[in-house]
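To: structure desk
From: M.T.
Subject: fold request, one chain
Message: Could you run this one when you get a chance? Sequence is below, nothing fancy, just the single chain.
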Amino acid sequence: MARPRVTGATSVGRAISALFSTEYEVFKETDPDHPIAHVSYLAKRDEVVIQQDDERWQTRSSAFGPMRITYNAIDYQIHEKITGRFAILHGEDVIAQGECRFRSVTLPEYPPEMEVFLGRLSLGLLIRTLFWELAF
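Reply: Done. Structure tokens follow.
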């Protein structure tokens, strides 16, 4: 479960902040009061940042190439299409494929050992998509 990280004195202020938030907190459904991870999107650098406990992962963007991220000392590439579809590759091997829609992400097949990481990364890609949808 994830929700926007918002601040504000009034409920209207918090609602507006949530609409444009680029920072989300991830919670266990059994403990919705204590975040277990933070996922954010930094528009200036076009980077997704995932922070969980002492670990931090950050995408690296390039002007004309795919985004890259390192997880467990392995480099992955994130290839995206304008349709919202994306693929995560290690070298030439497709690790996972998914699709970002307006408020949801689908990731039907992935390695089970990467489920938590890919879930957080997918959330970051969704935040990124929402940011650019609302910006234009």
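Reply (cont.): The chain has two helices and ten strands. Let me know if you need anything else for the meeting.
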